[in-house]
């Protein structure tokens, strides 16, 4: 098994008296899709926000390409090559695809934007991901479908020489055809050598594209398994009860009478 690009060890995070993450170990490897699953309140969003530099973590170690790093802000995460595509996509409807992909990172001088360079880079990025559903990079985002918007948001995340891309519920509220487009794109990201984290409640999507499944239960990582080694039922049990057979949390010992 290859060395992780992103390797988190013993991460703890509390909000006041509430201990949200308990000694979480989490690894992301190049060329793999890792599904991060868990019930609402399991700690998935908190873990991602710690990785993204939005929440400071209390204790733990973060290694990136084997080197210890400290992520204090989204800028720190971005400079390492960690990009997050949140569920709300954070796209500006009144701007076109190029303007959205370079929003806040525009090319050019203080007085004149390099529109030609940005448009070329946007087209090349979409082409590299085999995106064929977008006819023009000058199309306003307001006129795009849900699947096309998700595609633009993902393409935006890989435009900056990213090494790890975290996708938060990328197929939520999409139709069948649009879901197919996004799942194909997720696999292509991994095939290009990126480490991909897929956060999803949709087990069909998880089993279709994920190489590994990591399960969070009440703030603890209770299982890290190869997708081919488990069933839908086992993963659902891990999500809801924290264990399934020999997987997950140890069974409580019988109380002696």
TrEMBL record:
Residues 6-243 form the ABC transporter domain. InterPro entries: AAA+_ATPase (IPR003593), ABC_carbohydrate_import_ATPase (IPR050107), ABC_transporter-like_ATP-bd (IPR003439), P-loop_NTPase (IPR027417). Gene3D superfamilies: P-loop containing nucleotide triphosphate hydrolases (3.40.50.300). It comes from Amycolatopsis saalfeldensis. This is Monosaccharide ABC transporter ATP-binding protein, CUT2 family. SMART domains: AAA. It comes from the Bacteria. GO terms for molecular function: ATP binding; ATP hydrolysis activity. CDD domains: ABC_Carb_Monos_I. Keywords: ATP-binding, Nucleotide-binding. SUPFAM superfamilies: P-loop containing nucleoside triphosphate hydrolases (SSF52540).
């Amino acid at each position: 098994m290859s060395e992780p690009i992103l390797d988190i060890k013993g991460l703890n995070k509390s909000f006041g008296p509430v201990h949200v993450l308990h000694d979480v170990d989490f690894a992301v490897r190049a060329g793999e899709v890792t599904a991060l699953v868990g019930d609402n309140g399991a700690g998935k969003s908190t873990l991602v926000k710690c990785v993204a530099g939005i929440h400071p973590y209390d204790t733990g170690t973060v290694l990136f390409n084997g080197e210890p790093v400290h992520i204090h802000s989204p800028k720190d995460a971005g400079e390492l090559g960690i990009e997050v595509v949140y569920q709300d996509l954070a796209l500006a409807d009144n701007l076109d695809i190029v303007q959205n992909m370079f929003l806040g990172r525009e090319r050019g001088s203080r007085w004149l934007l390099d529109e030609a360079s940005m448009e070329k880079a946007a087209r090349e990025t979409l082409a590299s991901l085999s995106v064929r559903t977008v006819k023009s990079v000058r199309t306003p985002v307001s006129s795009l479908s849900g699947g096309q918007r998700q595609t633009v948001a993902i393409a935006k995340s890989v435009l900056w020489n990213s090494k790890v891309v975290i996708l938060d519920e990328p197929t939520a509220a999409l139709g069948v055809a649009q879901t197919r487009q996004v799942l194909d794109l997720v696999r292509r990201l991994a095939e290009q050598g990126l480490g991909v984290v897929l956060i999803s409640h949709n087990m069909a999507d998880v089993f279709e594209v994920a190489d590994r499944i990591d399960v969070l239960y009440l703030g603890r990582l209770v299982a890290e398994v190869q997708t081919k080694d488990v069933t839908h039922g086992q993963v659902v049990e891990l999500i809801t009860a924290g264990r399934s057979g020999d997987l997950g949390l140890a069974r409580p010992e019988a109380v002696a009478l």
